[in-house]
Design a protein that fits this description.
Elements (H helix, E strand, L loop, with lengths): L2 H53 L11 E6 L9 E8 L2 H5 L7 E3 L4 E3 L4 E2 L13 E7 L7 E7 L1
Antiparallel strand pairs: 1-2, 1-6, 2-7, 3-4, 4-5
């Protein structure tokens, strides 16, 4: 092989190596660009969530302000029992004393039918107020009144 052929072959090998490196670089750049975009989207979503959290007031108590709470229980089980409900109440303690059946109330000792003071059989498929898990959801619109918005039974 002549010197010119050897140089020509070396140049071709270098050009091929450079093209391969450029492809790897482009692929790495594309991957970096995609990862960067994903991190920017995640950052913006987190920032939006923080702003929303700053704007969303915590539970309000007293006055005519109403809050929305999610109630859940794991103590009473079986067919026909309630597992959760969403209620409108003035406070967490009022929410805790709300039964998924809107015609049932807590009299301080047991669940009774509202206005009748007759005990509800099997507590109406719900646990005592002290066993209810209460989670604040948000502040209710002024048009909402205290009570059950929805309930889930099994």
């Amino acid at each position: 092989m002549s010197k010119t052929e050897a140089v020509s072959k070396t140049v071709e090998e270098l050009q091929a190596a450079w093209k391969a490196a450029q492809k790897r670089s482009n692929a790495a750049h594309a991957a970096w660009r995609d990862a960067f975009r994903e991190s920017v989207v995640a950052y913006l979503a987190l920032n939006d969530a923080r702003k929303l959290a700053e704007q969303t007031p915590g539970p309000r108590a007293g006055g005519c302000a109403m809050n929305i709470y999610m109630l859940a229980q794991k103590h009473v089980g079986g067919k026909g029992t309630y597992v959760s409900c969403v209620v409108v109440a003035a406070s967490e303690s009022d929410a805790r004393r709300t039964h998924p059946l809107s015609c049932v109330m807590w009299d301080g000792v047991e669940w009774v039918y509202e206005g009748l003071s007759v005990p509800v059989a099997d507590a109406g498929g719900w646990c005592p107020p002290d066993a209810v898990e209460v989670s604040f959801v948000g502040v209710a619109e002024s048009s909402l009144h205290p009570g059950v918005l929805c309930a889930t039974a099994v």
